[in-house]
Design brief:
The chain has 84 residues and is mainly alpha-helical. The protein has one domain. The protein contains 3 helices and 2 strands, in the order H-H-E-E-H. A hairpin with a 2-residue loop joins strand 1 and strand 2. Helix 2 packs across helix 3. The termini are far apart. InterPro entries: Transgly_assoc (IPR007341). This is GlsB/YeaQ/YmgE family stress response membrane protein. One of its GO terms (cellular component) is plasma membrane. Pfam families: Transgly_assoc.
Length: 84
Amino acid sequence: MGFIWALIIGGIIGWLAGLILGRDVPGGVIGNIIAGFIGAWLGSFILGNWGPVIGGFHLIPALIGAIALVFIVSIILRSMRRSA
């Protein structure tokens, strides 16, 4: 049950990151989950483990990391569309 809860929270974190930036996360729900998980890892690596913990994620660093990840991915995808 803990893994399913982590998937749900990871998806919500990725979705929130996309909403905050006003950009869609590529891949839909799966993309949101991946952005949430990688963003949580990235945010915890850079900012440390602080803030409230939900579903095994430290919420504030995870959200900041997911925002950074969605921003970087959207820039890369935009540059790939222009070059094609």
